[in-house]
Structure formats: structure tokens, C-alpha cells
């Protein structure tokens, strides 16, 4: 189970880092001029990097707490809820200073989804086995973060 969680977290980190730091274009060759980004592109890049940092700092802690829910019940659920609430606050903090109004709004929406999920006892009630953790964590996190991640791909 820990390998599965590690795989989910590692894949998310790699995909997040790749999406936030890439323009999708070819890599400049030696002797060619570096690509210059417009101010709005620089702001989006900075926000995407901040979101990537938030993911790196928060996803592992949340996944670890969530993986304890089947064995530890309410104690682990409360810890996972706190981690998810903190994750939402961090997403909001990473996007609220953006010069892009859409990024700010989408950051607020993503943070709201994370924090609402933290209060949703139905979400945590689905976690009865360690397999349930793997089954819900990847797709659910992708859905919760979708409002901001589309800016970064």
C-alpha cells in the first residue's frame, strides 16, 4: 500500500513539476537566444511554480494521514481533514497574489473544493481499506486541483 501511495505522490510531483516548468516547446540549443516571456506569462509561471511547491509540501502529508484512516479511524480521519484544510489554505495563498484574475478565482475555487472535501464526512467514510485510499486519492485530487492546474499545462 505504501508503494502505491508513494507511486501516486511521485507521479503527481513529476507531472506537476513538468507541467509548471515547461512551455511544451523545444529546448533552446547552445548559441540560440533564450525565450522571453511576457509579463502575464511570467506571472502564470510563478503561480504554477507556487502551486507545485504547495503540492510538494502538502500532498505527502495528506496521503500519509489518509492511509492511516482504515486502521486508526477517527483519529486519522481528523488528522487527514486538518491536512486537507491546510492544503486548501496553501493553494489559496499561492494564488491570491497572482496578477491574473482568472488564476486568483480558480485558486479560490480549488481551495474551496479542498476545504469542502475536508468537511465532507462522506468522502472519508469511503475509506475502509488501504485499497480505497489508492482508488480515490489520485482521481479525486486531480479533480480538486483542476481549476488551477489547467493554467499550468
Radius of gyration: 17 Å
Q: Helix segment count?
A: 7
- Give the overall pLDDT as a whole number: 82
For the record, the count of structural domains works out to 1
Low-confidence stretches: 1-11, 17-25
**What percentage of the residues does DSSP assign to strands (E)?**
under 5%
Give the distance, in angstroms, between the N- and C-terminal Cα atoms. 29 Å
String of helices and strands: HHHHHHH
Number of strands: 0
Helix content: over 70%
Shape field: elongated
Which structural class matches the secondary elements? mainly alpha
Largest sheet: none
What would you note in describing this structure?
By secondary structure, the chain is mainly alpha-helical. It has one domain. The chain has helices spanning 2-20, 39-67, 69-72, 74-95, 101-119, 121-125, 130-149. Helix 1 runs parallel beside helix 7. The relative contact order is 0.17.
Which features characterize this protein?
153 residues, disordered N terminus, mainly alpha, single chain, elongated
Amino acid at each position: 500500500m505504501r508503494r502505491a501511495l508513494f507511486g501516486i505522490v511521485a507521479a503527481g510531483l513529476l507531472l506537476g513539476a513538468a507541467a509548471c516548468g515547461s512551455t511544451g516547446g523545444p529546448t533552446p540549443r547552445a548559441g540560440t537566444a533564450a525565450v522571453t516571456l511576457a509579463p502575464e506569462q511570467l506571472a502564470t509561471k510563478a503561480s504554477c511554480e507556487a502551486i507545485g511547491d504547495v503540492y510538494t509540501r502538502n500532498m505527502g502529508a495528506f496521503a500519509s494521514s489518509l492511509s492511516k484512516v482504515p486502521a486508526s479511524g477517527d483519529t486519522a480521519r481528523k488528522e487527514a481533514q486538518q491536512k486537507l484544510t491546510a492544503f486548501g489554505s496553501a493553494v489559496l495563498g499561492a494564488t491570491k497574489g497572482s496578477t491574473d484574475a482568472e488564476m486568483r478565482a480558480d485558486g479560490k475555487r480549488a481551495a474551496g473544493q479542498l476545504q469542502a472535501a475536508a468537511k465532507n464526512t462522506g468522502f472519508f467514510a469511503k475509506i475502509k481499506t488501504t485499497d480505497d485510499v489508492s482508488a480515490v486519492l489520485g482521481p479525486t485530487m486531480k479533480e480538486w486541483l483542476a481549476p488551477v492546474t489547467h493554467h499550468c499545462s
